[in-house]
Amino acid sequence: MNILGLNAFHADSSAALVIDGTLIAAAEEERFRRIKHWAGFPTEAIRYCLAEAEIGLGEIDIVAINTDPTAQRWHKLAHIIRHRPSPRLILNRLLNRGQRQSIAEYFAAEFPEQSLRARIDHHEHHLCHVASG
User: Fold this and answer.
1) CB burial class (10 A; 0-12, 13-18, 19+) of residue 19?
2) Torsions phi, psi of 71, nearest 5?
């Protein structure tokens, strides 16, 4: 089982590749782009992980993303009602959420020579912190 884990569209974007339960490669995107705490789609970190394992994107079984857009939906709505954040902040959060949900489109745009067949799994952000510890 080949699993590509991503921290995307969040500070310190990164990628990690696990094959049959063994960590093969992991890298933060800032190391390639030379921009501290870079946030976006970690294209170069993904390329590095695939190259280290000598596999293509088509051999990935699961892409695990460290955010679940549906997590704590009611808690987030209650927070908006109670604290009334600026419409700009709400718009930024919705745009960020849209980026994370269209992860397959980012793969298609950034890796046009390869085909992603993997299942895309979203996981709650804080549980990902626990798992990486």
Assistant:
1) middle
2) -70, 135
Q: What is the DSSP string of 43-105?
A: HHHHHHHHHHHT--GGG--EEEES--TTTTHHHHHHHHHHH---HHHHHHHHHHHHHHHTHHH
pLDDT digits (tens, 9 = 90+) for 18-57: 999 999 999 999 999 999 998 889 999 999 999 999 999 9
Reference 106, options 45, 54, 59, 52; nearest CA is 45
pTM: 0.75
